[in-house]
Amino acid sequence: MNPDNIWWGQIGNSLRLLANVTEHLRDHRSAVLSMPERFPWRERFYREIDIRRAPYSVARRLKRVAWSGKGEPGQFILSDMCPLDVQADYWPGQTYGEYLASRRNLTINDYDIWITGVHRKSDLMKWAEFVTQYHAAVRDAEPHAVFLIEYDGPPMKSGNLEQISCQVERYDCRVFCLEMAAALSGTHLRDYQAELALSIAGSQPELCAALLDTGGRLVEEPLETARQVLATARDSDGKHFPAQTESELISKVWLAAVALLFPLMERYRIDFIERHKLELSRFLPISNSNGDEVTEPFDLEIGALCYIIANLRVHLFTPMEVNGLRLCRRIRNQLAHNKPVDCADVQAVMDL
Question: Whole-model pTM?
Fold first, then answer.
């Protein structure tokens, strides 16, 4: 299974990003692509743009060029994409943008020029200035070059040049993890598998995919599996994922269990009280663990419910209900003391 199919084919924000970039190229509007340093499945993103622009860009060519980081952007375009006679005719009295806009017979007028490798604020400022000058000089003349500046440096404004946010959102990663876990069908605990991957990887879809690709090992041995993935896996650009300390991994595995199990246990507590609120009212008021007096059934915490069952010798509840409450108390106490929860206990809580 190719995880990039899910990321670029099923995630809403990814599809909207593809549509936004494509519309800019269709409408001949330059822009800055504001990207994270690690961009998921970059080559697949490029291919998707190429496919989408094909129907209305027969007469235009898309050219991706890596910025060297040296010199001026206009000089870079002139020397890299223009013939020698055009280069020789340039006179420093004009800006590069004005000069290139004045040459109406240039091949680059039929180009969508995608600049990669812009990492520094100073370089983005140079590119934004050049592109702005170019469009101010070219005005409404057609055809003209369109520039997409791929920038992955610190956030900053780009003057009058529009920015397209290509940032990865955590909620997109959550949807991605759930979709990929469902597609893999590698374990019955798919919700927990997805929660673990999201908690460990955060907003790194490619790391999420590498974790999920381990199948049931992630839910059975999350710490060891995460350590192995971080030590051996690489992203689509061939880079290792950022290292994480042992304490960071333990905390993230714990957080995944908290995020998944606490709402389930709370739901079980509320449902139990809803079924037995009349019977429970007979044993109120009662003091909770803090010494506060509880007078309403729905204010009874799991510990108090277990106390009623164990110490007041109440036989009004089924063995299954009693076992469920005791399970919730044990797991809640484990999590409250930052202790891990094993796979069998996760399954038991989810079965409630």
Answer: 0.90
